[in-house]
Amino acid sequence: MFDLTGKRALITGASGGIGGEIARVLHGQGATVALSGTRVEPLAELADSLGDRAHVTPCDLGDAASVEALPKTAAEAMGGIDILVNNAGVTRDQLFMRMSDEDWDTVLRVNLTAAFRLSRGVMRGMMKARWGRIVSVTSVVGVTGNPGQGNYAASKAGLIGMSKSLAAEVASRGITVNCVAPGFISTAMTDKLPDAQKEKLLGAIPAGRMGDANEIAASVAFLASPEASYVTGATLHVNGGMAMI
Amino acid sequence: MSDISDRVKKIVVEHLSVEEDKVTESASFIDDLGADSLDTVELVMAFEEEFGIEIPDDAAETIQTVGDAVKFITENSEG
């Protein structure tokens, strides 16, 4: 089940906790992976630890020209792209009334516009192959909203709407487009939260614990697999019951 | 000209799985040959590859019949 042998996957944000784990799991299922991110060093380390079938394709997702070039670079490195994982994301949290245009623009550009450009960039190859998988990592807050995250929540909700529209356009070509929406996941970022805030958050999660990056990666692997061929336009919520939507 | 026409028709027949005799110069991809809007995008992609040319989006929108495609490619390919 979920064998990805021979498939070629481009993963953005692969230098982060969740992205790195997604790359590891897809690679473990047999896929060739192109690891993208802004910081080359952690990408190179990850590629080294994976061994064969791992390529490093750095990209600044805030830069339009860099984003346009990424699908070509990755396709040249791997011979094509069968799976795109739009995982990269940034936050610029701020109360709505204090949020600057710049904080809004940065988050939308990296989280949503880059995903749009990359999805468009890989489409031609997938159309010709009559097979493709696009999985975007969104967030529970894209559906529930969250104070202080107006920009982030908008970008994540935008990914869901974009994915549904694209899914409808290309379903007849064997291409599926889906989202995975993590809840509260244990990463270097969430480890920094004060204990009191963590306790409060955990109280709202029926599973009583934070999720693990591996649990997000497993969901991505499923949606990327041949077995998920009839799942498209869906958002898979992986949040320990934090929001049952 | 006739060579381009034959190659265009061959691509259309293969891509849309239609009878060869239906693919006339005046046949509309959408109205006569059953193409949907995504098929027309794919046909343009196939023409670009076959003839080594680039068909910009605004030009692609004007290519609605087999004859339109032959005319555009004839005018824009080096031979």
Rounded mean pLDDT score of chain A: 96
- Mean pLDDT of chain B comes to 93
CATH class of chain A: Alpha Beta
Give, in order, the helices and strands of chain A: EHEHEHEHEHHEEHHEHE
Main pleated-sheet profile of chain A: 7 strands, parallel
Helix content of chain A: 40-55%
Question: What is the beta-strand fraction of chain A?
Answer: 15-25%
SS-based class of chain B: mainly alpha
In which order are the strands of the major sheet of chain A placed? 3-2-1-4-5-6-9
Radius of gyration of chain B: 11 Å
Overview of the structural elements:
The complex is a heterodimer of chains A (245) and B (79). Chain A has 245 residues and is an alpha/beta fold. Chain A has a single domain, classed as Rossmann fold (3-Layer(aba) Sandwich). In chain A, 48% of the residues lie in helices and 15% in strands. Chain A is built from nine helices and nine strands. In chain A, helix 3 runs parallel beside helix 4. Chain B is an all-alpha fold and 79 residues long. Chain B has one domain (1-78): ACP-like (Non-ribosomal Peptide Synthetase Peptidyl Carrier Protein, Chain A, Orthogonal Bundle). Chain B has four helices and no strands. Chain B has helices at residues 2-16, 37-51, 57-62, 66-76. In chain B, helix 1 (2-16) crosses helix 2. The interface between A and B is small, with 7 and 3 residues. Chain B: Belongs to the acyl carrier protein (ACP) family. Chain B: One of its GO terms (biological process) is lipid A biosynthetic process. Chain B: InterPro entries: ACP, ACP-like_sf, PP-bd_ACP, Ppantetheine_attach_site. Chain B: Keywords: Cytoplasm, Fatty acid biosynthesis, Fatty acid metabolism, Lipid biosynthesis, Lipid metabolism, Phosphopantetheine, Phosphoprotein.
